[in-house]
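ok trying this again, last paste got cut off
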Amino acid sequence: MTLNPQTAKPLFSYRKYWAHRFGVAPFLPMSRAEMEVLGWDSCDIILVTGDAYIDHPSFGMAIIGRLLESQGFRVGIIAQPDWSGAEAFKILGKPNLFWGVTSGNMDSMVNRYTSDRKLRHNDSYTPGGEGGKRPDRAVIVYAQRCREAFPEIPIVIGGIEASLRRIAHYDYWSDKIRRSVLMDSKADLLLYGNAERALVETAHRLAKKGLDQDFSDIRGLAFMRDSAPEGWTEAPADDLDGDEGVHVKGDNVVVRLPAYDQVVVEPESYARASRVLHRESNPGNARPLIQKHGKREVWLTPPPIPLTTPEMDAVYGLPYARAPHPAYGERKIPAWEMIRHSVTIMRGCFGGCSFCSITEHEGRVIQSRSEDSILKEIEEIRDKTEGFTGVISDIGGPTANMYRMACKDKQTESVCRRLSCVYPDICKNLDTSHDALIQLYRKARELKGIRRVMVASGVRYDLAVKSPAYVKELVAHHVGGYLKIAPEHTETGPLSKMMKPGIGAYDKFKDMFDRAAREANKEYYLIPYFIAAHPGTTDEDMMNLALWLKRNKYRADQVQTFLPSPMALSTAMYHSGFNPLKPVRHGASEAVGAIKGLRQRRLHKAFLRYHDPENWPMLREALKNMGRADLIGPGKHQLVPNWQPAGTGGKDARPGSGQRNAKARKFLTKGVI
């Protein structure tokens, strides 16, 4: 069936399912007792999540549950179940229509392990911050237990873990290529991206006819097929490496990605699959994708049509309780404590940073709420949230200052295949006006009972410099001492692989920020974030970044080492050694160096923490090997001292060395990363 990118059925136009007569639940039930109070004998849909259930629109399961409720379905929640057996999955009985399974707001592996593959002992989405309440690869485990509990009930998987693992993908934690999570979980359907449209359409279809029907016209969906159906023309990924990337045109064209068996043994084929998938991500021109897994095919329909502003308003205006489920009692849930007084104003990101999963999951098209909807939510926080002191902790989204930004030309937008609207330069067709955001800020802080409206989301500084008025407004009214931004690096090599602007854009923003702070008579500082060990980064690049940090008197107390998350372009570089940002042609692909050895990864991290005496022996050794022993010494232009404080530096530290000067030396900190 031909997919028309210009049409999308309005999200709230469906005839409601018969169970809507039961009304709205104060909280979606987590027990049979709650179901009985609501007058339910069963649930139509049961959602299983790796997070604690917090009925708030910052948590995906709450949005999904309330959206399905608004369509008339009875929805139950099983949160963080005991996965050692199927009993915990039977607590609400058998769902009438389907299971909905997600790992939660985060990929379970990212949630549970550090970039060095060490187990984390805390979990912000669990009462008390306790770790270990979700399994590794939670989507697979939960789906298996659902199948054990009630084998005949369809299973639909979704959320970020399923979304980022929808095709064959490199798994950093096992250091191998894994199959699509759709196969490993043995689920029936996979929803990817912002899934509201696909979810509502799928739910109503399953309610009418079950699984025995064609789902290929629903966008944002993945399912298994035995083969490509008749009437479709296959475009091999090998033919899509040119600048245009479109050699087969017309209706009913499906792009064949290199097969699972091929990408397992050919790293270059993996890079090609990654490139094609990302270039087929514009809802205006993307085509279905197909990837062979053994004897079966994973079929991906094109990405979903973004929600309109009225639809976004309706989704965020659903009757959320705006609190954790009462079953948790007085136990604190760190993620809730952090966002309880914050407001999401938009979704998506057109930055396209190659290491980030936001674009793969939420898309490049910005989906913004209306001013009235946002102001109404702020008033609800003021009036209904316990402990509110008049401070909105954040008003933003994936990027704080992309609100209402869009392509000036819809025709151009519909055919564009750029991976980023702002790299290598800001596209001339991008409307970068901050006027709507400035107006929103002003109206928000003028609301009765609102003392401060903070911006805690990251600011895209190469956009901000286009609007001096925005920078002035931000600094004068919406910064609380520090503002976080993410230059990620200072050197051209790694920045070109990250698709990030040069450090000159940061310098320009810093000048504007500092000037605005002086004019407002404020003592504010920027908090720049940097990544160590990203593909394409050399030891010299990290050394130069460390020297920049020292010159600018920045001390990185917390640093980030590159973590290859599933499906990211940077992950394709890390695994394959090739650059999917450029055409990937057999024997003519651009090579990229990857930092895989634990010692080198630690060295790159140590350069970011050049001020930590524990790292000095490693840095001294590295600098000597690099022929830069001139950077060892007490001078301001030098990176590390040639003395060692007592009790530091591990086996390389000599007892008593540097003890005389250890307390005398202070590190000036202009900003803490």
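PB: full thing came through this time. Confidence is low (pLDDT under 50) at residues 1-5, 652-673.
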